[in-house]
Design a protein that fits this description.
403 residues; Aminopeptidase; 2 domains; aminoacyltransferase activity
């Protein structure tokens, strides 16, 4: 079979249809690879695209955003020619991604073909760098062509166990909190069509307000309705009900074999009843019943924090390293952009903290720099627009753990 490499524009109807057709035929139907889910989590200034390859009886799909690099920065770096053509970089959507493959007969050959064609496309489109949040499961991912960096520990619960093992192989505090929830009269409601989405938005919004979350995380009802349309049969809200009121919930997204914790929240007044421990336990049981073999709970804000410890209670042996992929297509352009950006930071008394491992370096604190009224094109996006963007596949978990 002849190998076919294509880049789709997610904003074009015909390309979007081909993308959805390929996604629908995939083995996993990975929720974070659907174009409408990607679009819902769009960074400012990003144009949704996807690279695909058909090779040796199988396929590769890699969604990403093409972002224009700040024109003022490019000019300061001396990189804008007479034609004024912009420079770009790539970033994968929030979630877990990278070039995912299925039914490929020769993965090594497919990798060579995919990366060679991708590099040519990047050069033709003046792409300087690429940042990808990689899937936790290497068996479904082409080897990344650039540098990979370990970021955080994520927690993944094995669901291929008996129901008794699932209930017992958690931290003693989790078992105690689940018993307490039962004693308090907490019951579980599973919603697979979004009929109670108003309650989820209420609980979630209260949680974000309590946490003083940035605006990017404050998703409104149309966001969730868009997920329902994109992923029918691949989402579930697991609610805790107390005294006839829904007081805690986790939103799950799932493919054929893997479920993902996505968003959640708990009413503060319900904390003493420990409803979210029961929600997470019943989420795992429900996913197991529907045939999932793994449940990804995500990680914390920073390594070893309280949120990570809370999630570890549900998957004590489920530590999996989360990696990001970083690639520079033009070393010269990258260095000149980074040098120009460092000069701008220095002009306002800021330094680049290289220990953070921020990539690409020329976007470090770019949003804050724009707000300081230094001459930066505010239309360009930045990884710093969402805090702790390298923490885990969802940039950071939004669940508030009840103590």
């Amino acid at each position: 079979m002849r190998a076919t490499w294509t880049v789709w524009d997610g904003e074009a109807a015909a390309d979007r249809k081909q993308w959805i057709d390929l996604w629908s035929d995939s083995a996993e139907r990975h929720p974070f690879a659907h174009p409408d889910v990607c679009a819902a989590l769009r960074p400012k200034g990003g144009r949704l695209m996807a690279a695909s390859l058909s090779h040796t009886g199988g396929h590769v799909l890699y969604p990403f955003f093409l972002r224009e690099i700040d024109g003022d920065l490019a000019r300061a770096a001396g990189l804008t020619g007479d034609d004024g053509a912009p420079l770009y970089d790539l970033v994968s959507p929030y979630g877990y991604g990278g070039p995912m493959h299925w039914r490929i007969g020769d993965v090594a050959a497919a990798t060579v073909k995919f990366e060679a064609d991708f590099a040519v496309w990047a050069e033709q489109n003046r792409v300087v760098s690429e940042f990808a949040r990689l899937s936790l499961f290497e068996e479904s991912l082409l080897p990344f062509a650039g540098h990979t960096r370990k970021r955080q520990t994520n927690l993944v619960r094995d669901l291929e166990v008996t129901s008794e093992e699932l209930s017992q192989a958690v931290a003693s505090k989790v078992r105690s909190n689940v018993r307490r929830a039962h004693r308090e009269g907490v019951t579980i409601v599973v919603d697979t069509d979004g009929r109670y989405v108003d309650d989820f938005v209420r609980i979630y919004s209260e949680t974000m307000e309590r946490r003083d979350s940035v605006d990017w995380y404050r998703f409104k009802q149309p966001f969730f309705e868009g997920l329902h349309t994109a992923l029918p049969g691949q989402f579930a809200y697991v609610y805790a009900q107390l005294d006839g009121r829904l007081v805690s919930s986790d939103l799950l997204l799932f493919g054929h074999s893997t479920g993902y914790y996505f968003l959640g929240g708990t009413e503060a007044e319900a904390f003493p009843a420990r409803p979210n421990d029961l929600v997470k336990m019943e989420s795992m049981k429900w996913l197991r019943t529907r045939g999932c073999s793994k449940y990804v709970l995500g990680g914390g804000y920073v390594a070893g924090d309280g949120l990570e410890r809370y999630k570890r209670g549900f998957a004590p042996k489920g530590q999996v390293d989360f990696f990001t992929g970083e690639r520079i297509f033009s070393d010269a352009h990258y260095e000149r952009l980074s040098a120009a950006h460092r000069s701008r930071l220095s002009a306002v008394g800021w330094d680049v903290d290289e220990s953070e491992g921020f990539f690409p370096a020329y976007r470090y604190n770019a949003e804050l720099l724009a707000h300081s009224q230094v001459s930066v094109d505010s239309g360009a996006s930045s990884e710093s627009e969402t805090p702790n963007a390298h923490a885990d596949g969802f940039s950071r978990s939004l669940q508030e753990a009840a103590s």
